[in-house]
Amino acid sequence: MTDSLDSIAVLVVGAGIMGSGIAQVAAQAGHRVLLFDSKPGAAATARTKLETTFNKLIAKGKFSEQSGRQTLERIDTVDNLEASSKVGLVVEAIVEDLAMKRELFSQLENFVSKDCLLATNTSSISVSAIANGLKFPERLVGMHFFNPVPLMKLVEVVSGVHSDASTAETIFALAESWGKVAVHARSTPGFIVNRIARPYYAETLALLLEQAATPAQLDACLRGAGFRMGPCELMDLIGHDTNFAVTQSVYAANFFDKRYAPSLIQQQLVDGGLLGRKSGRGFYDHDDRQQVSKSSFARPDSPPSADNVELHGNGPVADRIAASLDQQDCDYHRQDDSDWQGLQVAEQQLRLSDGLVASQLGKDIALFDLPLGTEPGSALAWSHSSRASQQWINDVPQWLAFLGFSAHLVADTPGLVVARTIAMLINEAADAVQQGVCSEADADLAMRLGVNYPVGPFEWLAAWDSNSVIEILDNLDRYYRGERYRVSPWLRQQAWHNP
Length: 499
Ligand code: NAD
Description:
The chain is an alpha/beta fold. The chain is about 45% helix and about 15% strand. Helix 9 packs antiparallel against helix 17, helix 11 (about 230-240) crosses helix 12 (about 240-255) and helix 20 packs across helix 21 (about 490-495).
């Protein structure tokens, strides 16, 4: 970043949750900050709250008394937009309304200097649409912070059709100088994070609609795969009204592509006022909810039956099972050339899900989910054929426990829980890259920092392989029919490129 940008003053318009957070990080980076809100008194209230915040940060030792006070003193409130004539950057964080944002930027053009850059913190509106009609639309980009701004590292720098590459680069450098990690995104519905994250909710909502599993099971399995929060508890935290509104807006913005369709489950919760934590009840009753505590897991010393054990297939999952069996001194015979991965015990099979359902595959067939969890006792979904013997149904959870997992029986549904969710996250990210929304590296970075995923979609893909992801998606597509599970052309090309 140039010295001139280092020393620019910043006007933040909209002193709500996001605007006051943006004012705080800009002041912490050394900028003089002006804060404006059209609601009388709102900017002053935000300034008072920031004072409380800085007092707390000083008390915690995050700032010395002197630097805390100096930082706060850099933030001033203003009561009109004329003040924008003195700044080098305006960051807009007003309500999420296209007409209001357009009106604001066109007013600002009357005051700002010709070098002043304009940024919008919109989370879902097209940056191209906001810039349309401005005299100098090339100087406007999205600067999409995440909530809470002082804590969340990610900033998506979003370019619309008019945005100058140099404007995007300057805002990128500025965001990094504010201690953030910036990624470039092209303005398309949901940008990077809010787009790629859709399947995390959508697959769970689809499973709930089919009554394939309970919210607690789905949360346990996805936590078991390394996510910090399960989708149901996360939706309860975000609020179903907010999450439903984002889903609807991404759906409409994609011309009602079924892949992004909202769920009846969301509609029912919103209609009934079960908005999640904020209303006391959503998927869970929060007035009454026990803190999720890890249930104790005891790994059995011996398998339920030790005769005629075969380990099928090769690949990371088969290797992991082999390591586990070796560690437990369990005798088995390895069938490397098998076209499936998992265990065969006499005539019974426990197979890694490839997107087919167990009943389709035969009689004594059970399926287990993609095992991403590394901790002993990680939750793992499994299902069984409708024709499986009671003996095999009893044995499977014990086999899974012997292999180090706590087993969660779900309905015989394709791709179980984790496999279909991760496959769809990879697929969405692949489409985003195919369409030039972002790079692979930025998609990974954005998902780790914007929504705290344990790893990014392309990191999952690197540890899995494109053919297996395509197989799961194609099987889901054949099972459900329709557009939802169509494979990204980018993934197919990857599979041909790396057969
Ligand atoms: P908020 O409701 O907390 O604050 C909005 C503020 O803007 C209010 O104080 C309001 O009085 C003021 N305002 C409205 N119209 C104005 C105008 N014309 N001029 C000046 N001030 C005006 O909202 P928020 O959650 O801070 O969101 C602000 C923006 O940030 C939205 O575009 C939102 O989509 C985006 N965003 C929000 C989040 C989030 O989690 N809240 C995350 C990322 C992005």
